Amino acid sequence: MTEPQPGRDGGPDGGLLGSGNHWAADRRDWPGGLSPSQREQPRYAWPPADPVTGLQPDAQARDLPLDAHVHTDQSPDADVPIDVYAALALERGIAELAITDHVDFAPGTPAYGFVHFNDRERVVREAAERWAPLGVQIRFGVEITYDSRYEDDIRDSLRTRRYDFAIGSCHIYADSPYAKPHVQAWVDGRSLAEIVAPYYAEVTRAAQSGLFDTIGHMDFVKRYLVPLVRPEQLTAAPELVEPTLRAMVQSGTALEVNTSGLRQQAKETYPNPTVVALYRSLGGQRVTAGSDAHRADWLAWGLEEGYRILATNGYEELLFRRGHGQAPVKVAIPERFRRG
Ligand SMILES: [Zn+2]
Ligand SMILES: [Zn+2]
Questions:
Q1: Residue 122: inside a domain, yes or no?
Q2: Residues whose Cβ atom is located within 5 A of ion ligand 2
Q3: Which helix (H) or strand (E) segment is 98 a member of?
Q4: Does residue 113 carry a pLDDT above 60?
């Protein structure tokens, strides 16, 4: 095993670090992926069964132009080979996938030094070449855990490493006040504003950095606050997210509607339709949508709802940058979402 160096997203030799055991102890606290409880069937109640047939509709969407948030086995918390997703996308009519494997910059966090940039890029770009002739576009993206202590390292990395799409996300790790062992003590005696302040301050810094094409799951903290703070309480306090949304608008960082929340305890998208409406009212034009799949059966999961939320709020297209310095591109939201 080679010791990673701070700020290097792949470690100096670019190898897989051992078997990834440096993060195994924290696996239960790892936010995105396959914790033991998540391996069970999700306890979601959406979408409802058809009242006539009683059949549960297929929650994995079909016939969409893009799933902009997908994790493969090059993330420490996912085990899906890229070709499995590509075949599913072909079958389901998902025209484009942004592969956004995790990269962390804080030593000791799960995706720190997990797979070197060169290896990630080769795997994704080779898959893109294989699948493009069949009709599936694959983009080489990344989901970087934003941590303001490492902003300079993230900036340096993005300066030299070219991605088609960079998500910046604030994750909750074991030492966070929102992590399971700490959250009750954190919430006790604090106002709602005080509870969420550190989280949103960090997301705001991520937006202000201008480093990212989109902010991932911008109100993800609500996942960790349930049931101590209910999503409705946060919805009733839009002023708490407004500064973050303003920072996104000002820096041209897109808002992601992340549908993983529909299959998690929050039972709503990250962010929910109320926040999307507020972003729109503040002048937010850049939006994207992703399933945050970590399993094959999560690809495009809930994305029909994600696109519907955007269309209901007046968006006719996804609009986002494909990498730093690039002009934003438009991806039309299908007509079916915009009828009535
Ligand atoms: Zn994430
Ligand atoms: Zn993710």
A1: yes
A2: 32, 143, 292
A3: strand 96-103
A4: yes
